[in-house]
Amino acid sequence: MLEITQAYEKPFERYDLEEFDFRYEIEKAGLSIPSSSDWERVRNVCPFLKLFHDVTLRIFGTLYVTSNTCIEDIYSIRTLMDDAISDSSLCDIALAMKLKFDKYFGDIEKMNLLLYFALILDPRNKVKYLVILLEDRYGETGVKAKKIYIMDSMYELYNDYIRIHSPSSTSSTAESTNSSSILGKRQNSDFLAPNPPFRNKLREKMKTNIIESIGELEKYLQESVEDDSEMFSILDWWKVNSPKFPILSLMARDVFAIPVSTVASESVFSTSGRVLDPFGSSLTPKIVESLICTQNWIRGSISDTINYEKDWEENQQIDKELSKMK
């Protein structure tokens, strides 16, 4: 609204000069004609508010993942407010906004760590980008403690997924023991294999090292980050790499399925009042849900394929040609 209003700065001034009733009606309502300082303030506020507008559009999306970019948006907003505090024209607005912002996002301990997990599970970011964000916010001295807190929590969640989705270690151990005893049995029954204690310790240590080295989360974090491009699809990437990271891909699926905002889904189901009217009150809840979801899916697929600006220009051209024929 403010961006559109800026185009009418000169018309406001000229209308004020040519129409006396214009100023009279404005002042009668207890308002005033925008001055040059007011227009300058509008020009300063617009870039400040534009970031909030862009972030709002991103997190309200329903046809793509939103949780993996939320932390980056939060840190961008924080940086923007810190810069605005030093601006005399925006200081009051920024201070009031920062007070409420810090209430929810002032420190990592106050935030939902799943947002950090989603950032790390984005193969274009991983821990490297997390460290960059933390350094920008807390400085080099405070990064280590914050990083340890986030990664320890992420490993706890990852270990829970291993415990839930991995096969029973007891049964696998028993099967491997039986099979190894059969495969390793010598033909000579009188032969007694040596069993020195140091060899047993060595083998146990080797087993431990193998298990630690092939951990999915460690393997994922050690690999290089993916190139960022407009064609990159994070869901397709995890789908392709799910055989490589079977447990971690399940964790990523659940984390990315969490929407940052519920406004979009609430607005979709607010149409139920128009679907379930007095004439359609006999519809079952399952049919109503199917109608609403189908309507949203159809609208979503149409919006992706239609170029409204191009269609508008074509329709305007058709109207002009039809008018000439008349």
UniProtKB/TrEMBL annotation:
Location of the hAT-like transposase RNase-H fold domain: 63-161
Pfam families for the chain: Dimer_Tnp_hAT, hAT-like_RNase-H
Domain of life: Eukaryota
Biased composition (Low complexity): 167-181
Chain intervals for the UniProt region annotation (Disordered): 167-189
One Gene Ontology MF term: protein dimerization activity
Residue ranges of every copy of the HAT C-terminal dimerisation domain listed in the record: 216-298
SUPFAM superfamilies named among the record's database cross-references: Ribonuclease H-like
Name of the protein described by the UniProt record: HAT C-terminal dimerisation domain-containing protein
Species this protein is from: Lactuca saligna
